[in-house]
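Ticket #4471: structure export looks truncated?
Reporter: QA, pipeline team
Priority: medium

Steps to reproduce: submit the single chain below to the structure queue and open the exported record.
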Amino acid sequence: MMETILFRIFEDGFSADYMSKHGRVLVAMSGGIDSSVAAVMLHDEGYEVIGMTMKTWDYASSGGSKKETGCCSLDSINDARNIAVSLGFPHYILDIREEFGDFVINHFTDEYLAGRTPNPCVLCNTHIKWDALLRRADKLDCEFIATGHYAKIREEKQRYVISKGIDELKDQSYVLWGISQESLARTLLPLGGLRKSYIREFASEQGFHDLVTKSESYEICFVPDNDYRGFLKRRVPGLSEMVAGGEFVLEDGTVVGTHEGYPFYTVGQRKGLGIALGYPVFVVEIQKDKNRVVLGKLDELNRNGMWVSKLNLQKYENLQNITLPTITKVRYKDPGTEASITQVEDRMKVLFTEGVSSIAPGQAAVFYEGEDVIGGGWIESSFKQ
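Actual output as written to the record:
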């Protein structure tokens, strides 16, 4: 109902007499500084901008204790609307809580119950936000969609390629590997060639001082207190009782204690294990079927190979039986490691030139050639060779 009402308001109030220089663009506006500046810049360049803020989650329904903040809060929605009003372009709220919850949150829960470590932000970008924006863009006759991500897009040899943003500390190309060619063809990323310092300066010069001082949230939007274990317990009643009492074991199978349940641990974790062996230990592996958590020393976390599935290739259409040198990232803040990749049917075999620590099944792996994203996929398993 909300979506129908919003679009009716737009159609009644829209003036078809206005023609832009570059076309009509639907901008995802979270209320933060980056997406707000992206909208302002596109407006100044002559695009006909329509702002849209997506309501993905109700904080009250998470059961957490933290005050509502972030991209779904009322304050953030109002901040986005105020930018639009000040510049005279339309702004609308799109309620996608149902489709977000059904896909992203169910996947988040299912992955932990499968003994993997999910990455809901990547999943949301590639399967929810882009698809939702493009569907609404079509209804509003928008040629393009735009976001405030720090990355660049170019067309090369009839392929659309994402490359790193020039601000290395803000680069977000890692989270965009899953976007299809069809979607990239209609996507604008105005901030890819800019540094965060310039964005803050620009916002200040435009008079948007509240955006400059506004804190940025890096938490999962539906886990506002950053307690995913508590979220899982609330999401799956009786979970603690179902999985409690499993074994902590070493790699040789030696039992060294009991744990609270395998879904409450992640590969690479050190803190919060509640066990003392006289030396630092880390979670090396999750064995879901046995409700076991394998512990080991830091060097036992190293792996020099992995299998990656559910691939999406961007720079090349197909890499079947081709071995390609890359820099491969196994998590967002990972600087990357030299590796060779070979596509074997619908999976990618990755061999690192040196050991990589804490490769967690369920996380995204992204392959780079220089600054360009070759593609990526979901880590299925890792191995020693």
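Status: closed, not a bug. The export was complete when the record was re-opened. Leaving a note from the reviewer for reference: The first helix runs from residue 2 to 13.
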